[in-house]
Amino acid sequence: MTEGSIEFVILHTNDLHSVFETMPRIRSFFSRVQREQPPERLLRFDIGDHMDRARPETEGTMGAANVDVMNATEYDAVAPGNNEGLTLPPEALERLYGRRATFPTLVANLRPSRAAAEPVAASWIRPRLVLERDGMRIGVFGLTAAYPLFYGELGWDVLDPFAAAAEQVALLRGEDRADVVIALSHLGIRDDRRLAETVPGIDLVLGGHTHHVIEKLERIGDTYLGAAGKFGSHVGVVRLSVDARTRRVIRCEGGAVELPAGPGDETIAQLIAAHAAAANAALGRVVARLPRGLPADADRESPLGNLLAMALRRYCDAEIGVVNAGQLLDGLPAGPVTASALHAILPSPINPCSMRLRGAALRQAIEESMEEERRRFAFRGFGFRGKVLGALCLDGMTVVTASRPAGRRVVQILAGGEPLDDERWYRVATIDMFTFRIGYESLAKGEKIEYRLPEFLRDLLGEALSSPDIAGRIAEAETPRYVDARES
Question: Pairing between strand 447-451 and 425-431?
């Protein structure tokens, strides 16, 4: 530390995605730094996607497990990510951040929709704050990834993050008299760099969303950028020095360090265990009873995959239902089906959507689904928490196939009993993931796309399984959608 300067240590995490196993060790790491650093010179932030409803601890407590861990970790402020803002309904966010959290939640580009008939409660939203530390005024503001169509379905308006950032920096540097300005940005590395390039007055951008690791702080102009990867593999450690006389940042060093091995904080571990038990109890409720088992197979159509396509089609009142078989991690045996079992086989926080799609785009996707490499494509992101993409399961269509070279295996497609018309627009029910050009890119060519939130695929499947006519629906789902030309 230079004579006449004040050094602050900033610890930050991002994109933990409910990997609870790393959270006790994160708290232990924070505690070690706290013992070496005066409390008035220590800051702790999380930059979003701490939650992931693919984990039963989060699903069964609707995020309470995560918030309680963040409380006990003693974060000074948190910026929400899309996994908080888009997978939890507004009333749950109000319950968690408005009443349960002991930390401020910062997001400058999200607000209740002015067009909503009943505006959502948002007492928890703060665009910025000023922390008084060792005689310095440290201004902090938050930004979250902008998905206007999705947020709009939940009753939110999401604003342009760059305009929001410029406004917050002007207020912090002006009437708030901040000496240091820090952005907590769940926008992704490209937008973080753009933020540094286009919004003057930000000293430090701590980022997330794209799961990038910055081992040594990146510098663009007068702004430094940091980020700590994903799942708690790293923790960000920044040493920021401020001139005591000019009150300006004179040095900023550090970056992401690997989270050390070793024992974790016992209090955090016990807290997680208690929430896990509560989650297991909540998810133990029976949601349906099956007269016979429903197998699933990522590599081909299956009764359970077809039933999911049927549920999508019914929910969206469409002509055709399309979903990738890889959404389902397993089948279901005969007998009672619990919420836990449903969550285990369909963990992805993916929403249904509907669109108008030309027959040619459907034909292309179905032809591509015949390719083994395509079906076994492994990825993670865009809400997908499965293992591989999988084949396409259908409803409202029959596909006649033959053993021919790739790209020519589809002999005929019937939609509603009639030959598929390549030029006709069909009403198709599918999943939001496809609209991002993930997996079967031609399914992103639709028009008049309507996202259906807050329901997840497992909500639709649970409703289908609990139908009084479940036996009839199972029989319908067992009817093959793909038929060999020799059998047709």
Answer: unpaired
| Percentage above 90 pLDDT, the chain | 94
Phi, psi dihedral angles at 421 (to 5 degrees): -95, 115
Q: How many CA atoms lie within 13 A of 126 on its CB side?
A: 17
**Gap between the Cα atoms of 166 and 111, Å rounded:** 17
**Chain-centroid distance, C-alpha 126:** 21
Residues 241/180, Cβ–Cβ less than 8 Å: no
Q: Residue with structure tokens 């002991």?
A: 102
Q: Which two tokens stand for residue 331?
A: 């089948």
User: Which residue, 64, 70, 115, is CA-closest to 93?
Assistant: 64
**Residue 285 predicted with pLDDT over 90:** yes
Residues 6+ apart with CB under 8 A from 126: 104, 105, 106, 107
Do residues 140 and 45 touch, judged by C-beta distance below 8 A? Answer: yes
- Give CA torsion, residues 303, 306, 312, 318, to 10 deg: -140
Phi/psi at 467 (nearest 5 deg)?
-60, 140
Residues 6+ apart with CB under 8 A from 82: 48, 49, 144, 145, 147, 186, 209
| 436 secondary structure, DSSP code | G
Please check whether residue 31 is in contact with residue 238, taking contact to mean a CB–CB distance below 8 angstroms.
Answer: no
Contact 332, 37 (CB under 8 A): no
Residues in the chain: 488
> In this predicted structure, what is the pLDDT of residue 67?
98
Rounded to an integer, the average pLDDT of 18-26 is 98
Indicate the average pLDDT of the chain.
96
Q: How far is CA 153 from CA 150, 163, 271, 293, 452, in A?
A: 5, 23, 34, 35, 7
62: left (phi over 0), alpha (psi -120 to 50) or beta: left
DSSP secondary structure, 290-324, as one string: ESS-B---TTS--HHHHHHHHHHHHHHT-SEEEEE
Assign 488 a pLDDT band (cuts: 50, 70, 90). low
pLDDT tier, 74 (very low <50, low <70, confident <90, very high otherwise): very high
- Could you tell me which residues come within 8 angstroms of residue 56 by beta carbon, excluding any fewer than 6 positions away? 276, 279, 280, 283, 340, 343, 344
| The pLDDT value given to residue 487 | 63
Please state whether beta strands 218-220 and 410-415 pair in parallel, antiparallel, or not at all (unpaired): unpaired
Question: What is the band of 1 on the pLDDT scale with cuts at 50, 70, 90?
Answer: low
30 token code pair = 């924070």
pTM of the model: 0.93
Separation CA 32–CA 261 (nearest Å) = 13
